[in-house]
Specification:
The chain is an alpha/beta fold. It is 38% helix and 27% strand. A hairpin with a 2-residue loop joins strand 9 and strand 10.
Length: 236
């Protein structure tokens, strides 16, 4: 079943057109990767799906219903969670308070205490840091917290923007193992990742964006065998 459908999406930053007729879809329980160089439109795609950017043209459907005119907070309530590039935590708030912000205003607010326990089971380091200011955490801990905060709304679709950025390889491996575990529990994942090899190993299907245009889509195996992609993105 198709969970998210993006049709012929065009978006602008000011007068600059960032997305040109972009289409993609993700099925229930899938992991999809969007790859491309800096400025290709990957972050704009996620921000448009989550309602932070209003598109100029096109449509976005979730579970068969158009959400194009729906504000960002309603999209969260529907089941779309977005972990932005740079984590965007509240540095002067504790780990616990940041987690609570993930459930605030959502249908999960009544379950917030049990959800915090679940997040601390999923990310044990957060339990150790629960009363600490988010601004004092390491980069890996901040990414864990940002991901856990998004999961506090019990999403159907988790969108991750550059989750490995600036992290040590050991932390990246741990984080991606947890992402696979989350997916195994039925959460679809849409990941934007500059570490193309890592993204293609994680996902089953992928999309390639270049200069705001979607130029290739398909099984990740076909991406790994494509000589142009291997030269441009995998260093082969």
């Amino acid at each position: 079943m198709t969970l998210l459908q993006v049709d012929s999406l065009s978006s602008y930053y000011g007068d600059a057109r960032a997305l040109h007729d972009v289409s993609l879809e993700i099925g229930d329980g899938e992991i999809i990767a969007v790859i491309g160089s800096n400025g290709a439109g990957k972050t704009t795609t996620l921000r448009t799906v989550s309602g932070l950017i209003k598109p100029h043209a096109g449509d976005i459907s979730f579970e068969g219903m158009s959400i194009l005119k729906m504000p960002a907070h309603r999209r969260i309530e529907l089941g779309i969670a977005h972990v932005p590039e740079g984590r965007r935590l509240f540095p002067q708030m504790s780990v616990r308070e940041n987690l609570l912000m993930g459930a605030y205003g959502a249908s999960t607010w009544k379950s917030r205490r049990s959800l915090i326990d679940e997040m601390c089971d999923l990310f044990p380091r957060l339990r150790e840091r629960i009363g600490q200011y988010a601004g004092t955490l390491s980069g890996g801990e901040r990414q864990m917290l940002a991901t856990a905060r998004a999961l506090m709304s019990r999403p159907r679709l988790l969108m991750l923007d550059e989750p490995s950025l600036g992290l040590a390889p050991k932390i990246v491996k741990t984080l991606f193992t947890i992402i696979e575990r989350i997916n195994g529990e039925g959460v679809a994942v849409l990941v934007v990742e500059q570490n193309v090899q890592l993204a293609l190993k994680l996902a089953t299907r992928a999309y390639l964006l270049e200069n705001g245009h979607m130029i290739k889509s398909g099984e990740t195996a076909s991406f790994l065998q494509d000589e142009d992609i291997r030269r441009a993105y995998l260093g082969v």
